[in-house]
Amino acid sequence: MFQNSIIKLFNIEKPIIQAGMIWASGWRLASAVSNAGGLGIIGSGSMYPHVLQEHLQKCKAATNKPFGVNVPLLYPDIDKHIQIIIDEKVPIVFTSAGNPSTFTSVLKKHGITVVHVVSSSKFALKAQQAGCDAVVAEGFEAGGHNGREETTSFVLIPAVCEAVNIPVIAAGGIASGRQMLAAMILGASGVQIGSRFVASQEASSHINFKNAVLESKEGDTILALKKLTPVRLLKNEFYKEVELAEQNCVSKTELENLLGRGRAKKGMFEGNLEEGELEIGQVSSLIKKILPAEVIVNEIWNEYL
Ligand SMILES: Cc1cc2nc3c(=O)[nH]c(=O)nc-3n(C[C@H](O)[C@H](O)[C@H](O)COP(=O)(O)O)c2cc1C
Question: Which ligand 1 atom sits closest to the C-alpha of 46?
Answer without folding.
Answer: 8
